[in-house]
Fold this sequence. Notes:
- The protein starts with 11 loop residues before the first helix and ends with a helix.
- The longest helix is centred in the first third of the chain and has 17 residues, at about 40-55.
- A five-stranded mixed sheet has the order 3-2-1-4-5.
- The protein is extended and about 70 Å long.
- Helix content is about 35%, strand content about 15%.
- α1 (about 10-20) packs across α2 and α3 (about 110-120) runs parallel beside α4 (about 155-165).
- The protein is of the alpha/beta class.
- The protein contains eight helices and five strands; from the N terminus they run ααβββαβαβαααα.
- This is Retrovirus-related Pol polyprotein from transposon opus.
- InterPro entries: DNA/RNA_pol_sf (IPR043502), Retrovirus_Pol_polyprotein (IPR050951), Rev_trsase/Diguanyl_cyclase (IPR043128), RT_RNaseH_2 (IPR041577).
- GO terms for molecular function: endonuclease activity; RNA-directed DNA polymerase activity.
Amino acid sequence: MINFYRRYLKDVAKTQAPLHELLKGAKKKDRRKVHWTDDTRRSFEKCKTDLAEAALLSFPRSGLPLSLCTDASDFAVGAVLQQLENKGWKPIAFYSKKLNETQTRYSTYDRELLGIYLSVKHFKHLPEGNDFVIYTDHKPLIFAFKQKNEKAPPRQQRELQYISEFSCNIQHVLGKDNVVAAALSRIDSISEINFEAIAEEQNTDEELQQLLHNNSLKFKPSTLPSGKNFGVTPQRKTLGLTFHKNLGFKYSN
């Protein structure tokens, strides 16, 4: 994302130099650990600050070309509405929305179409009445308005109908050139709570381990928001109702 706006950043090559050093000798899908130093940390923080200042939203100006870049991941959609200023695209507004459980099961085509639909709906007050281009990295969508309506499911028809009220100009852009929308569509959740660290502390806590072996207490494993189950002990099996009835009948006689 920072490389997309690098033309607006001062001394960006110098700022990123310590980070580029970490990539030397790296191969595709390289999972090796990086050596994080004070220099790389300062470089990373400087990149974030410069990007925040460079990506300050521009004031919309009539007459300038508009474009809407959208993207969808497995769990969210993202978009950036931008205008062409001085031969460069400047952001007017950003948009990101997490998909619900049903939407995450959509096909890639449907998620990408949903991303365009939600983005147009969100920004409708800005592009309304203006010609603008919609950019997507999902190539089949550029033929969406050329297909026969009866071939599309009702949901697709509704979304395409709404989009067509603003623009029918959908163009393809390579994924590597759609970095801003792609970054926004991959924001799952932002939390200051490290649930995994809490779970690890529970696993190594001596007092808790003693309580776990206390027969008078029953602990149940719990799934954390991280999606991982950090239960430290399985739930004990309970005796059935028939057993209790037979036991009560035996001692009552």
